[in-house]
């Protein structure tokens, strides 16, 4: 196989509502002297279809592996968590404001010029509640003031957030026609990136073609005329881990993420391109009025009945470790273990006693009930693999051992998101297995505080005033002080069993014939070698 270069950007801003074993991390390797192939084709595989190709309406982590080919962002981050310029040339930040000076030479794939107004309109579109963006209050708050002139964009918020630039700065920027009609990019692209989508066969493959005129990457990055940049990128949907591994070994794929036992057989046979950690297992308990799990003692009891170590092993196929905090995705701006010391420890006898004292007592049939109502949990989870299903069954068995029933609502990604985001879902669904990944904890608060759907994404109607107070305090700080304050806030969340993260998984992207080099470790070029 001959050699060529390609652009590969870690999807730092990708939002993952469900645990994903692959993706984002630090590329291995350095500069290489492989001979480039002119106008070659690069074959890349995803584990599932990304869905609608508009990030502001689709939080899928998989989509984050597609958008960087066609779209650019204001900044990107290196492995130290430092922002580097892309569409933005300069920026200033405070806990309540961001000001970007933006470049004026980026051109959309439809031929129009990207303006500061269009960049600002991306964030206005998200902030408008009428658009029902899944990024509202996650990337930009609904009450944000968004202004622009001919050369700059300023975003001002009422609530402070010391990490706001991570969410806003890495958001893919769409061209004006895409914002005017999001359906036009449901299965196509319209951005200022190196590639433009030319074919989309949902569930099978997506084809992108190089834009030869492209020249607006970060300093030192390849352009559309750089010798060896592939002419075509084919992104195939290959759900089966073993199949992806086999295609890498047979050299029919150049790049793919593989986990579990199949990753073991790739070790030493093909190269590891990138590694990273993602939160891959967690439980939300509904706190909607009238739900059994609105009672703090019930939540703690249910958590004490679970063997979180066993659940971690099953959910990760023995490849994971216990989760430490909310934000584990690269670049890890804060590093601490708030979950380990503060989550309720397994104690089945204590769990049974707490449920008895809460009025949920066992009947002659061994099932718990209160005021004539049995304690049966409606349990929603995404059926994305055998490990997830096995984890859900293990939870049900461990809860069953203390007299708690479970009704499973396992569904594929689209149906799962639809079910938990319906208005009033938190009054029907007691428990959700959910993992959300982002480099900073503040961006994830949309899932743990605030409005329930359709006004927000607080799927389980979580309501912990002490946690909210600690979050507000944490957001007043910056740097190391902000991280320390966030550790304290998360400790309260775990002690109250508002959210119970139990697993994080190290994922790997494998390549064959590819060596990575780059302008830094998060924005890299690759060259395929013989």
UniProtKB/TrEMBL annotation:
<dbReference type="InterPro" id="IPR039424">
    <property type="entry name" value="SBP_5"/>
</dbReference>
<protein>
    <submittedName>
        <fullName>Peptide/nickel transport system substrate-binding protein</fullName>
    </submittedName>
</protein>
<dbReference type="GO" id="GO:0042597">
    <property type="term" value="C:periplasmic space"/>
</dbReference>
<feature type="domain" description="Solute-binding protein family 5">
    <location>
        <begin position="84"/>
        <end position="448"/>
    </location>
</feature>
<feature type="signal peptide">
    <location>
        <begin position="1"/>
        <end position="21"/>
    </location>
</feature>
<dbReference type="Pfam" id="PF00496">
    <property type="entry name" value="SBP_bac_5"/>
</dbReference>
<dbReference type="GO" id="GO:0015833">
    <property type="term" value="P:peptide transport"/>
</dbReference>
<dbReference type="InterPro" id="IPR000914">
    <property type="entry name" value="SBP_5_dom"/>
</dbReference>
<dbReference type="GO" id="GO:1904680">
    <property type="term" value="F:peptide transmembrane transporter activity"/>
</dbReference>
<dbReference type="InterPro" id="IPR030678">
    <property type="entry name" value="Peptide/Ni-bd"/>
</dbReference>
<dbReference type="GO" id="GO:0043190">
    <property type="term" value="C:ATP-binding cassette (ABC) transporter complex"/>
</dbReference>
<keyword id="KW-0732">Signal</keyword>
């Amino acid at each position: 196989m001959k050699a060529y270069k390609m652009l590969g950007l870690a999807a730092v801003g990708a939002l993952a509502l469900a645990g994903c074993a692959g993706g984002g991390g630090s590329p291995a390797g350095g500069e290489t002297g492989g001979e480039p192939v002119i106008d070659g084709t690069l074959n890349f595989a995803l584990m599932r279809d990304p869905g609608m190709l508009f990030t502001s309406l689709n939080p899928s982590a998989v989509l984050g592996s597609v958008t960087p080919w066609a779209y650019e962002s204001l900044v990107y981050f290196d492995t130290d968590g430092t922002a580097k310029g892309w569409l933005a040339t300069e920026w200033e930040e405070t806990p309540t404001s961001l000001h970007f000076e933006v470049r004026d030479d980026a051109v959309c794939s439809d031929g129009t010029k990207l303006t500061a107004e269009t960049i600002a309109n991306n964030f206005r579109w998200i902030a408008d509640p009428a658009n029902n963006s899944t990024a509202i209050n996650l990337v930009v708050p609904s009450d944000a003031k968004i202004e622009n002139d001919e050369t700059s964009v300023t975003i001002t918020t009422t609530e402070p957030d010391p990490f706001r630039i991570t969410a806003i700065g890495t958001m893919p920027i769409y061209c004006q026609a895409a914002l005017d009609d999001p359906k036009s990019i449901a299965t196509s692209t319209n951005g200022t990136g190196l590639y433009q989508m030319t074919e989309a066969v949902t569930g099978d493959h997506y084809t992108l073609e190089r834009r030869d005129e492209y020249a607006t990457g970060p300093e030192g990055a390849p352009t559309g005329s750089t010798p060896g940049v592939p002419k075509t990128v084919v992104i195939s949907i290959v759900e089966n881990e073993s199949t992806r591994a086999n295609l890498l070994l047979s050299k029919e794929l150049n790049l793919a993420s593989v986990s579990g036992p199949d990753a073991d057989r790739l070790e030493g046979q093909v190269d590891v391109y990138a590694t990273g950690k993602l939160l891959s297992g967690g439980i939300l308990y509904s706190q909607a009025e009238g739900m059994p799990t609105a009672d703090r003692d019930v939540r703690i009891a249910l958590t004490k009945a679970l063997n979180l170590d066993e659940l971690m092993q099953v959910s990760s196929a023995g490849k994971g470790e216990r989760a430490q905090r909310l934000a584990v995705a690269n670049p890890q701006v804060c590093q601490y273990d708030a979950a380990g010391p503060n989550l309720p420890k397994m104690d089945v006898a204590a769990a049974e006693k707490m449920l008895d004292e809460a009025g949920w007592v066992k009947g002659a049939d061994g099932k718990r009930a209160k005021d004539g109502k049995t304690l049966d949990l409606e349990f929603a989870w995404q059926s994305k693999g055998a490990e997830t299903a096995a984890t859900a069954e293990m939870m049900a068995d461990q809860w069953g051992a203390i007299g708690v029933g479970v009704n499973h609502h396992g569904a594929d990604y689209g149906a799962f998101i639809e079910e938990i985001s319906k208005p009033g879902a938190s009054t029907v669904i007691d428990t959700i297995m959910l993992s959300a990944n982002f480099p900073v904890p503040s961006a994830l608060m949309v899932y743990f505080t605030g409005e329930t759907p359709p006004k927000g994404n607080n799927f389980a109607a979580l309501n912990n005033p002490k946690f909210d107070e600690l979050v507000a305090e944490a957001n007043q700080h910056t740097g190391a002080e902000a991280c320390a304050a966030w550790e304290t806030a998360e400790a309260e969340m775990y002690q109250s069993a508002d959210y119970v993260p139990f697993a994080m998984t190290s994922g790997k992207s494998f390549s064959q014939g590819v060596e990575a080099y780059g302008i830094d470790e998060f924005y890299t070029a690759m060259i395929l070698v013989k």
